[in-house]
């Protein structure tokens, strides 16, 4: 049975421009919400944000529990440029 890491492997080289945001991407985003990124992602008190790839690099340096998931996520063309933290722009086009 396939899992979220398989999805990231299969769709990792496909951008959101090529294939729009889907239910599986919602799962990826939900999983990302549970990764402990305190001290990595800028505070909500600022207007700063960093990319998934930048967060993953900092995360690896801290040797945290979700390192494999974040490593695979940040290696994918689909997710590595997406921002985490407070941002007014939403580069992902989410449609109902």
List keywords for this structure.
96 residues, mainly alpha, two-stranded antiparallel sheet, 41% helix
According to DSSP, the number of beta strands is 2
Strand line-up of the largest beta sheet: 1-2
Biggest beta-sheet profile: 2 strands, antiparallel
Q: What's the overall average pLDDT, rounded? A: 82
Number of domains: 1
Please outline the helices and strands:
Blueprint: H1 4-11, H2 23-33, E1 49-51, H3 52-62, H4 67-75, E2 83-85
Antiparallel strand pairs: 1-2
Give an account of the 3D structure:
The protein has a two-stranded antiparallel ribbon. The mean pLDDT is 82. It is mainly α and 96 residues long. Helix 3 (52-62) runs antiparallel to helix 4 (67-75). The protein has one domain (4-85). The chain contains four helices and two strands. The longest helix has 11 residues, at 23-33.
Short description:
This protein is mainly α.
């Amino acid at each position: 049975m396939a899992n979220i890491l398989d999805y990231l492997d299969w769709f990792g080289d496909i951008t959101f421009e090529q294939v729009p945001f889907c239910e599986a991407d919602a799962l990826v985003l939900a999983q990302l919400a549970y990764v402990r990124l305190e001290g990595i992602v800028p505070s909500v008190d600022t207007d700063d944000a960093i990319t998934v790839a930048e967060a993953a690099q900092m995360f690896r340096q801290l040797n945290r529990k979700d390192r494999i998931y974040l490593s695979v996520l940040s290696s994918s063309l689909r997710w590595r440029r997406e921002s985490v933290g407070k941002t007014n722009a939403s580069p992902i086009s989410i449609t109902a």
